[in-house]
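Practice record 12: protein with adenosine-5'-triphosphate.
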Amino acid sequence: MKVHIITVGDEILIGQTIDTNSAWMGQQLNLIGAEVVEITTVADEYHSILSGIKKGLENADIVLTTGGLGPTKDDITKKTIADFFEEGMTFHEETFRRLSKLFAKFGINVLEAHKEQCFMPNNATIINNDMGTAPGMWFEHGKKVMVSMPGVPYEMKWLMENGVIPRLKEKFTSQPIVHRTIMTAGTGESRLAKEIEDLEENLPDYIKLAFLPSLGTVKLRLTARGDDEAKLNEELEVLKAQFIERIDKYVYGFDDEKLEEALGKILKEKGLTLGTAESCTGGYIAHRLTSISGSSAYFWGSVVSYDNSVKMNSLNVKTATLETHGAVSEQTVKEMVAGAISSLGVDVAIATSGIMGPTGGTDEKPVGTIWVAVGNKSEVKTHMLSLTKSRSKNIEYTGNFALNFLRKFILEQ
Ligand code: ATP
């Protein structure tokens, strides 16, 4: 199953839109055992799209395109596809009915441009798009397949998950493919690899292990292919247990679970409430915690204490502490944890204070010096990070570290 992805859009070529569609599609296709052989971006222009399609169908079994299907006049992808297949266009009644219904719901009149959107190449099989107006289109070309989807990421994702991937699996996958994903935090890819070196070496050739590192976390994914799906699942369960036993202290979850979700589960289980006192992360940790549905059960609030006055007035950090040790210090984050616990009335708290860069560093405290503290009323633990990345990456890394630091702190209690 070789795939060529084509993203259509001038805005991608000029760097105004970052092509996240291909990255996401690549990940999903990899999960079903498809191999992405090329990703191409082409302009919203007839000849560019046409040569992209020709090359794609020479290169691969499947061509997936995103973008260029909207009601604006530069959206010529559909016309180009029809010409490529030497097909005319027909008005697709069902799509028109769906659009009219959708617009009526929002009190919008159907415009000529919307009607235009309902003309489809004659050979297209329409995949309804529940997330937007432009449907997906599936074409068969000999043994090959081409699918055209809108560019809006959430529409493309919905179509891929609900229409395209199930159809591709049915048409192309001959062998079952199964996965197990283990989420880890608190150590790097190399150390993790060292600890499981022998397990990895002993894997049979139909089972592969992939290390997928992010900032402060590493995802381990076991992928098995073969004819007997039940047997593969059994084998992967045994292997998963062996891997977990070996690297237990780093495992925080499975199947793309986020650290904030894993921490939330533990807080809920233990009946604990959490607050954050954030200087250098500016509420980022609170944002991540509140992005989890149901987090109000355990997350109570945050004091974004960027200025020293807020550290003193809202968190009771002592003036003497700030004067003697500075805002970026172990003593300050310790007092911030105590302050958050008492002012927010929570059981446990996270505090951060540091220099995220690129400016603000000194010889004594260079950019990337970040103090993190976690604790409860009777105990506070601290750690100093020395980070070397960009401002946004330093913030993300600190967020991951702090969430995992508290997770471990609670489990050790
Ligand atoms: P529309 O109905 O909005 O016109 P469309 O299928 O014509 O949909 P485009 O106009 O190409 O799609 O893109 C719509 C929006 O989707 C873009 O403004 C951009 O924000 C986003 N988008 C398009 N392609 C990509 C991509 N490859 N990666 C990420 N975002 C994209």
